[in-house]
Amino acid sequence: MNRSEQIYFHKLKKEVAIPQAMDDRLEDIYTQIRNGQIRMKAPDPDMQRRPASRREDTREGTSESCFSVNRGFSKNAVWKWTAAAALCMIFLLSGLCFANPAFAKDLPILGDVFERLLENRANSLIGHKDQTALESIAEHSAPVDEAPAAPENEASVTNLAEDAGIVMTVSDAYCDGYDLYYTFSVQTEDSEMNQADYLLMLRYEEGDPFPYGSIHGSVNGYETEVTLQGSEKSGDGAFVSLARINFAELTREMLAEEMTVELEIDGVGAHQTDLVSDTMAGYKTVRGNWKLRFQVRMDTSNNRTALIDSEQNGFRVQKAVQTPSNTHVECTVPEEWAEKGLVFILTDDGGNRTHVEFTRYSRQDDGSSLYDISFYRSEADHLTLQVYDKNGTAQGQGDIPLPLLAEIPLDMTAGAVSD
């Protein structure tokens, strides 16, 4: 843990008064437990400490930041990514609901946590979310709505779930049509679990004794990938994090203005930063079954979309979209480069670079590939997309010693349309 992280964690533990509005919401949630709407299950006595196992990480290094955890990654790769992300993304959005008010009163309020996170990111070249994006997500977030009851006697599934002595809550959410972010909190009175610096939510597959650092998720009934940061300790017995669902794998027909999100978690692994291990189970794992369901409303009113249709050397940009959280660029890559190693660089007129969060692509019928590139947030009116050959060499040619394949200007003001 570096110096800035130590200072951040120290500040995060300071006690800040919780406003009356939050107390009221906390009491509403706690009433559900007292009334038996959510039932506690006993912890699994068979699940005890796991010995740490080590696996070699064979991935090749990359100069680009990859936010998403693809299903094709090895479990060890997922663990490496999640452990790093756990140190980067810790904050509360407005009105976070915790099941135990006694614990909740030890937590800082929204502005205080955000202020500390932004101070950390101010001195960082690249984080898992930059300052302006974090501010925008907080500004445009809203409390989640309780989703309609599902059939087959699942009416009790809401945005709060409790099992094996652990309470999980989804509170606020933000959705711009490309990404869905939501806050996620975990509470337990287990003294061993509370010694953790962060908790990982786990998924188990049948016949596999080793857990994945991911969870089951769906939007409107369609299975989707959920990127959930490690839940960092933010008070006595409470852990908080930010989760993200990217809609790149979902078609527009699968989405709607109001969407129902369902999550299922199979276990929780407790981790300490000074106990490095290649297992996601941690020094203690609690198995259980936590199902959550909530409703979010898509808001695209703050998106700015530009139809670019600009081409160079076979690389064509069709569209670019600036949202409160990200900048998205759609680029067609010619067949000869469709599956080669490419580096995408986005800069504004001042030469300021907006870093990549993740890249996805799909093959087209003509052999080309359509790349969906998600960059960090940029408000610039004029941007430039550069495409480089990652495996090539071009010493002495600019700041990036790689062959430049295409350089395409993006005018976000010309031909702009509402999303």
From TrEMBL:
Transmembrane domains' residue ranges: 81-103
Source species, domain of life: Bacteria
UniProt KW keywords: Membrane, Transmembrane, Transmembrane helix
Family matches, as InterPro entries: DUF4179
Keyword Hydrolase included in the entry's annotation: no
Biased segments, Basic and acidic residues type: 41-62
Ranges for region Disordered: 40-63
Record flagged with keyword GTP-binding: no
One Pfam family in the UniProt entry: DUF4179
Protein name as it appears in the record: DUF4179 domain-containing protein
